[in-house]
Write a structure and sequence with these properties.
By secondary structure, the protein is mainly β. Helices cover 6% and strands 46% of the residues. It has 2 helices and 31 strands. It has a 5-stranded antiparallel sheet with strand order 2-8-7-6-5, with no helix packed on it. A 4-stranded antiparallel sheet has the order 4-31-30-29, with no helix packed on it. The chain has a 4-stranded antiparallel sheet with strand order 9-10-11-12, with no helix packed on it. The longest helix is centred in the N-terminal third of the chain and has 17 residues. The N and C termini lie far apart (56 Å). The N terminus is likely disordered.
Length: 425
């Protein structure tokens, strides 16, 4: 296999400058323009330098691409809509606070900006604009309000690229609207020790947050021109996950330690980041925390731990004067009737949303989604086959589209699915 790859690719040269491509809905390509290539990306890695690790990665990506070609049943009773069209697993997704735009990136070296119409018709696909990233794969993505700016974390360089998006609405038919994407700025290489897996941009596009997993425990903030603003070190052996509150004020960190951490991003009225520090601890688990999620009101949080429990927290406390968070409930996954048959190691990620003073929690398990009511203390909805068989859901988020409460999910297959959440139970 190595000989064949070397023979087929080593002779190819990359003498031409990279091309910026914008593809509109339906695969129609716009005009190609030569753009200046960043200094760190002057040449793609030759095939003869491909290591065994890279070959294995390439083979695994090919297997994932085959999985991505499978489809979710469009007649699923809880299906609402989806962001789709990719040919490889989704690695990142974000939706702006106004619910007008969404972005998603995948291992097919592309990301898409989706335009969300006011009246969503599940039979009509969301219009989109696509951008191809030469040489490198995107591993995380975030956008500002109205998608004016988009931040993408790319592998290889272990860096961040900032893009601008120009919307070109069609006043006669908003369902055919599209736009133009342009690379605006690229950060210096290797801004983290490990691959960046989480990136968040504040709504006003004045700063971004980056984080890696594993033994890279630094969480960093940056201007959109690559200036390092503030850093926070969890000082734990590893970081498992980083999530954000709906308004972007708090970050929730799950680490090797048995307690989760809530960090606060204090910004001025103009969006300028003034301070980045720890606000609260979530103390109570016996083993490391795997995930933490905050509700839309910044009043409640949930934490998942390897001790086979999920805890509900009151975070609406006076943390400025050191008032501690309080445990409101503990869900024992090993004994609860709705969870005891599940393998805890296959429980993936959480999301939280308050409905009529009832904290609803979404829990992913393999390719399924369970909606748990803390008030009823039971699962009130089960979304089976939310993704193709064999896929694992890596991201969940409650999202309101008008009067519809939904939960979005993404994972190993090539789409972001949106599911109806039943609020009457």
């Amino acid at each position: 296999v190595v000989m064949r790859l070397t023979k087929g690719k080593a002779s190819k040269k990359n003498d031409e400058p990279p091309v910026e491509e914008t593809t509109e809905q339906g695969g129609k390509k716009g005009k190609k323009k030569n753009v200046s290539k960043p200094a760190a990306t002057t040449q793609a890695q030759p095939a003869e330098q491909m290591s065994l690790k890279q070959l294995i990665k390439k083979e695994n990506l090919a297997k994932q691409a085959l999985k991505a070609n499978k489809k979710v049943d469009p007649n699923h009773p809880d299906y609402f809509h989806s962001f789709k069209g990719f040919s490889a697993p989704i690695t990142g997704v974000d939706i702006d606070n106004d619910r007008k735009f969404a972005v998603a990136c995948a291992l097919d070296n592309t990301f898409r900006v989706f335009k969300i119409p006011k009246n969503i018709d599940m039979k009509v696909e969301f219009p989109f604009t696509q951008q191809k990233i030469d040489f490198y794969q995107p591993y995380a993505i975030s956008l500002s309000d109205s998608a004016r700016y988009i931040a993408v974390a790319v592998d290889g360089l272990n860096s961040v690229q900032i893009y601008t998006y120009q919307d070109t609405p069609n006043r006669e038919d908003e369902k055919s609207a599209s736009g133009a994407i342009k690379l605006n700025f690229q950060f210096k290489n290797s801004i983290h020790k490990n691959q960046i897996t989480r990136i968040f941009m504040n709504p006003k596009a004045t700063f971004i947050v980056t984080a890696a997993t594993g033994d890279d425990t630094m969480i960093k903030t940056w201007s959109l021109k690559g200036e390092n603003l503030f850093n926070f070190n969890t000082s734990q052996l590893k970081t498992n996950n980083l999530t954000r509150s709906l308004d972007g004020r708090f970050l929730a960190v799950s680490t090797w330690a048995s307690e989760g951490e809530l960090l606060e991003l204090k910004a001025g009225s103009d969006g300028t980041l003034k301070e980045f520090s720890k606000a609260m601890n979530l103390k109570g688990h016996k083993l490391e925390t795997m995930d933490v999620a905050i509700d839309q009101k910044n009043e409640r949080a949930v934490s998942l731990s390897k001790d086979k429990t999920i805890k509900l927290w009151n975070i609406n406390v006076r943390y400025e004067v050191k008032e501690d968070t309080k445990v409101l409930g503990t869900l024992d996954l090993s004994t609860h009737e709705d969870f005891k048959e599940l393998m805890v190691t296959k429980v993936g990620t959480l999301s939280l949303f308050q409905v009529n003073d009832d904290p609803l929690m979404a829990v992913s398990y393999k390719n399924e989604i369970l909606i748990y009511s803390w008030k009823k203390q039971r699962v009130v909805q089960k979304i089976e086959s939310a993704h193709v068989e064999g896929a694992t859901i890596s991201r969940l988020a409650f999202v309101e589209f008008g009067r519809n409460l939904t939960v979005t999910s993404s994972g190993d297959d090539a789409r972001v699915n949106i599911w109806k959440v039943h609020t009457e139970y």
